[in-house]
Amino acid sequence: MSIDVETARRVAKLARIKVEDADLPALAQDFNRILGFVEQLNEVDVDGVEPMTSVTPMRLKRRQDGVTAGGMQDKILSNAPDAREGFFAVPKVVE
C-alpha cells in the first residue's frame, strides 16, 4: 500500500492536524515508511509465541476481591469541587 499526498491530507484532516501543503509530501513519505515497517513486522513468524505483558516474567500483585463496608458517599463527595444529588458534577465537554 502506498500513501499519496491526497491520502496524507485526508489523514491529517481526520486527525484534526493542521499540515501545510508544502509539508504534505514529507508526511506521505513518513506514512509510507511506517507502513513499510509494519509490513516487515507482518513477515515475522509468531506461531507458538505466548503474548506478553512485560519483557520480564512477573506476576501482578492482586488484592483479595472482597466486600467492603462502603457507605462513605458523603465523605468521598466532600473532596469534590462540585457535587450534585449524590454524584460528582463535571463540566459538559460534548455538545
From TrEMBL:
GO biological process, one term: translation
E.C. no: 6.3.5.-
Highest taxon, organism lineage: Bacteria
SUPFAM superfamilies per UniProt: Glu-tRNAGln amidotransferase C subunit
Pfam families reported in the protein's UniProt record: GatC
GO molecular function, one term: glutaminyl-tRNA synthase (glutamine-hydrolyzing) activity
Assigned keywords, A-Z: ATP-binding, Ligase, Nucleotide-binding, Protein biosynthesis, Transferase
Catalyzed reactions per annotation: L-aspartyl-tRNA(Asn) + L-glutamine + ATP + H2O = L-asparaginyl-tRNA(Asn) + L-glutamate + ADP + phosphate + 2 H(+); L-glutamyl-tRNA(Gln) + L-glutamine + ATP + H2O = L-glutaminyl-tRNA(Gln) + L-glutamate + ADP + phosphate + H(+)
Cited function: Allows the formation of correctly charged Asn-tRNA(Asn) or Gln-tRNA(Gln) through the transamidation of misacylated Asp-tRNA(Asn) or Glu-tRNA(Gln) in organisms which lack either or both of asparaginyl-tRNA or glutaminyl-tRNA synthetases. The reaction takes place in the presence of glutamine and ATP through an activated phospho-Asp-tRNA(Asn) or phospho-Glu-tRNA(Gln).
PANTHER family cross-referenced by the UniProt entry: GLUTAMYL-TRNA(GLN) AMIDOTRANSFERASE SUBUNIT C, MITOCHONDRIAL (PTHR15004:SF0)
Family: Belongs to the GatC family.
Subunit structure, interactors included: Heterotrimer of A, B and C subunits.
Name under which the protein is recorded: Aspartyl/glutamyl-tRNA(Asn/Gln) amidotransferase subunit C
Originating organism: Kangsaoukella pontilimi
Organism lineage: Bacteria, Pseudomonadati, Pseudomonadota, Alphaproteobacteria, Rhodobacterales
